[in-house]
Fold each of these.
Amino acid sequence: MQDRYPDPETFSVGVMYECLGKKLDLENKTDSRGYNRMVVSPDISRAGLCLSGYTYKFMHERIQIFGETEITLLNQLSKEDRISAIANVYDFPVVCGIVTKGLIPPEELVAAAKETDSALFVSPQDTTPLIHELTDFLGEVFAGFVSVHGTLVDVYGEGLLVMGRSAIGKSEAVLGLVERGHRLVADDLVRVRKTANRLIGTGDSLIGFHMEIRGIGFVSIAELFGVGATKEIQSIDLVVRLLDAGINDEADRSGLDQKAFSIMGFDVPLVEIPVLPGRNITLLLEVAAMMNIQAKDTGCTSAERLNRKLIARMGRKRLRDKYDRSDGNCSE
Amino acid sequence: MTEVTVTVPNRLGIHARPAALIVRAAVEFDCDVWVESPADKVNAKSIMGVMTLAASGGTSIIVSAEGDEESEAVQAVVEVIRSGFGEEMI
């Protein structure tokens, strides 16, 4: 089985270029040398300090960024000093280098990279956005994943991970969501990765956007409903667990008790829906997603708001009763 | 018809969470169960109904039931109320 992120075990400069070359507009300056070097760290390094001679703690195992600072520094040095500055960096086995902002790398830099069989790329993109894009991707590659049995769907931008035992009707319910214009990310098997502040889910590239519906077989959502009905990658914002009728039916009628589902040490809000005859699970999933959005926007759930109103009303009533007792003629 | 009068013992009164606990106790029985405040009488199997009573702490309410196992039903609901719903008492 293949997955939509490269395996960190075989993640080389060449693989990185394949994945990000287009997105970062990378242009290779070293005749495809050094593509076999392994990228082993999700972090990047600015080569500046090392160029200037401070080589202590230089992170040579990271991808090196040559931004405007570095290139300006090199350009103002004499040729000799420039060669020795570049040697400070390239004496280490540099994974690969990226020159940003479309700057022209000094020929000594290109030569040093070629000599040491290290790839050097140039990108027209600005340094900071490029670093963000690059570290986001590297972080996701190196995060590792867990496979979860469930169906992931984007409902109004909210990632709903629908779980429950086999044959309880996850796929049918999500098929209903797709039919209502929401987007399928993965059915049956969801690859979940943890990034800095959220969980993201993708499908498996073999399964693609197929769903298995009992009685019909494999359904290609992308072909039947179009590309608008599918999505490659989605954060996981809410877990909905479908339960058999009879289990915990009365567990929480008010929605005041907020439960959480833990994936990779990350707590995601959890809603448990008992599946009973006549219940429209698709509709309930859609409402659960909308309520989760509303709870995030307003900072509290509708159950909490209703309860606050009720408690306030009881408080007013208590005051009124007290007043009534002291003065029998009081009316509302 | 069985009837028991009970005082709401917790400080916050019957807000949403206690209402849910009352309903959970009542739906276990097939008979009709009601809760009655001085202002209104509602179905004890309806969360919204029980909440509408807005019975604050110290209010006297009447729990009643009619049908199969009516005394058990009243007993169960009264116990839940007397327990104070696991909340701070008056």
Amino acid sequence: MTLLGKSISEIHKLLTSKETSATELAQAHLSYIEKSDHLTHAFLCLTKDLALKQATEIDKLISAKKELPPLAGIPLAVKDVLCVESYPATCGSKILEGFKPIYNATSVNLLFDAGAICVGKTNCDEFAMGSSNENSAYAKVTNPWNHNYVPGGSSGGSAASVAAGFATIALGTDTGGSVRQPASLCGVVGMKPTYGLVSRFGLIALASSLDHVGPFTRTVEDTIRTLAVMAKPDTHDSTSVPQKMRTANCDMVALLNDLPKITNLKNVKIGVIEELSGEGNEKSVQKALDLAIETLKTLGAKIDKVSLPKVKYALPVYYILNPAEASSNLARYDGVKYGARDKSAQDLLSMYLSTRQSFIGSEPKRRIMLGTYVLSSGYYDAYYKKAQRVRRLLTEEFNDIFKSYDLVICPTSPTTAFKFGDRTDDPLKMYMADVASIPADLAGLPAISIPCGFDENNMPIGLQFMAAPLADRKVLEAAYAFEKATDYTKFSPMLQKYESAKT
Amino acid sequence: MITKETVRHIAKLARLKLSAQEEDIYTEQLGKILDHVDALKEVDTEGVEPMSHALEISNIMREDEILPHPSQEKILSVAPQAERGFFRVPKIGE
């Protein structure tokens, strides 16, 4: 019997029926990763001791016949920008090489308390800046569907680890699409909840007003199960959504109970974003979108085209606000409090300069430069404030649409996975990869990417659902119904190859 | 358009020591990116309040009480250099 590639409820059954133990499960995943990750470079470090310790605790509960917590024994991979106490958190950067956080991120803590088993920290673009994982200072993650292609970014290691079957849940972060875009390119489910629904405490910041923690899983149900544990108010994060604002529309526990009742999308009104469909998309992607619209209609949804004219400004707004916030957040890497330091420097100023010069990579430097420029005196109003104003106009356009529609949809990414080196020479070309995912970050909307087809090279295509802030339940319900009605949820060939080589 | 002098000035503000090659690359790339974001100039934003957060929540306060926190020793344990309860840095002036 294989222990790999199981869903949360499948693992729960295997454990409660004593067909396997949490330790056996953890060992099976760790050994698969050890034997196969040289192909994907999805992990920056394995947390083997932690995994086995956590698994032992679960096995003790099982032998004492105690009730198991909701994620007991579930293999979890954590993006390297989230803190796991006593294990490295490099953010894919040399400047944090050797840094081991002294506490867990809240999201990580909640999953650990629910019984999840941490198998390792996943590779990502340096400080989560990138759309292809080519900006990691350590190794380029490859796409498990075809190792010649990028997995997307910045949470490429997390997306790849779920697509390969290394973990059932992987945590990622989404600032401009860094969960949804790699989910799309790797053929898995990736969700960015409403801003503030999941705590940012213990997430090493990129752009604080845009950063979201979100899960990758293979099925929508597993995403709901993860969020049911992880989406909680947190006094350690002042932007965490307070309990009183968490209404039925973002109640994941209730949604989990209601799942068997969701069989259609009757009376659900869906708008297809005109500005993000049509010619801007690759042919295969547009075809998959058209087909998805037909499926949604069959499920009973009412579908119209909707126009959001300000969407075309999302990318320029983002590439002012993100670098501005990043330049401020990355000022803390100065060789004093943590991480690397150029020890040869003779005085403080040259220590700052040479530490930052030697250990920060080219994309973070580019954003620090850009951010410092748009925040500098004389340019602050023309760039930074202007972008903040257009951000509001875009958000208001979305809010207006959500007065008449439950959801809006578009492809998660205008293209499928591209090849290594295709976009590295031109930052703007790389930034374009997130054109369809950035709007939801700017407006703080809940948004999910789920598999909706394959292109002519058998690379996955993703469909994105978005809803009004705090209506996370709506995107999950629609995604769940769509997933049940289609057959795109598949593992990359990696897992099958590994299993057949074993027997 | 952005000049190499501006790039040098910005690098100084950001505490980055750029190589000559980096100065050239960033002069060209920042120029291109700024040209791209200039598209925002055509949007009428008269009277629009700048938006700094996705949800309008502010001043979330908790009770002013001391909660458990990591020890000074633990915090300093991750520093490149520490001494007698302080972060240690190279000399600041003559």
